[in-house]
Amino acid sequence: MGFCRRRVRSELLLTDAYCLSRIAYRHCNLKAMQIQENVPLASYTTLQVGGPARFFIEARSEGEIRDALLFARERLLEVFVLGGGSNLVVADAGWPGVVLKIAVAGTTAHPADGKRIFVVGAGEDWDKFVALSVEQNCAGIECMSGIPGTVGGTPVQNVGAYGQEVKDAITSVRVLDILTLERRDMAAAECGFSYRTSIFNSSEKGRYIVTQVSFALTPGGTPKIEYADLKRHFGEQSAPTLKEVRDAVRAIRSTKGMLISSDDQDSRSAGSFFKNPIVTLDEYNRIASLPACKNQKPPSFPAPAGAVKISAAWLVERSGFQRGYTDGKVGISRKHSLAIVNRGGASADDVLRLKNKVQEGVFQTFGVKLQPEPVFVGL
To answer: In this predicted model, what pLDDT tens digit does every residue of 158-167 receive, in sequence order?
Structure first.
């Protein structure tokens, strides 16, 4: 997941706000922040590829974020905002501007209208927050256990897993407007949530930095058991607890290499590399009639507006990229066919080469163009 990340494009810098910020910059206290130079980025990503950042700043408050942005503006440098690094492919050449790591911490909770509202800093670890919600017996995000990254990254991509999406729990998102440097609280309806999408990674990409997210969870709520993996795990057990569901999700993710572990080479990835394609019913029927689907139709799930979501993993495997496939220093996870993994010493170019090969194979077999999930930095 990775999480909360943005770019400040150079064309956005030459504004009236920029002129004012140059004056304000003279009074900024940057001494409290450690500004590092030429910091390798590979260790800040779960895929473990990528060159150095020209400047690297870790911001623990909105004030420090503003100061870092002013530091970049003074030098006409682009900014890339880094969260947990779990959904990134960083170029071998690195990033020529400022990498701004969001480390805003803090979690509070209070009751409201039968819900429990959690207000969480963008730099908090996502899975630790899920664990906290389960400990407090609050339902709504238990199926998203084990997803790597930070809380601030979840609304950007509308993170989801096993039948839950954060859009259904988020009430508001606090952001910092990169142009005006002003704070804004955005209601969930303003965020434009859809499948793996929000305004933060589409129409307003590069405009806002997420600093805080508010979630409304249900005290004593029933856990969601919708996907086949969970149904198989619990079998005839009729009423698992939230903790049992969380433990089950983490166990399932571990079997797929989707639980970050230093002992598991297959977790050295950017998570699911491709989105599940959403197609019309007619398009699905066309795909299902192809020779590659002679013995089995592609697994599918209902999507909004009568569309159909197809399993990208199934398409990848049926196109010749089975689990364990290897191409030099990269390959397909032995546990999950959607994960491109770094088998040791891989470069970003190695990852891109395999990405292109998989996309071409799926297109040649099914006429479907897979869309990648990770954010590409400096590429």
So the answer is: 999 999 999 9
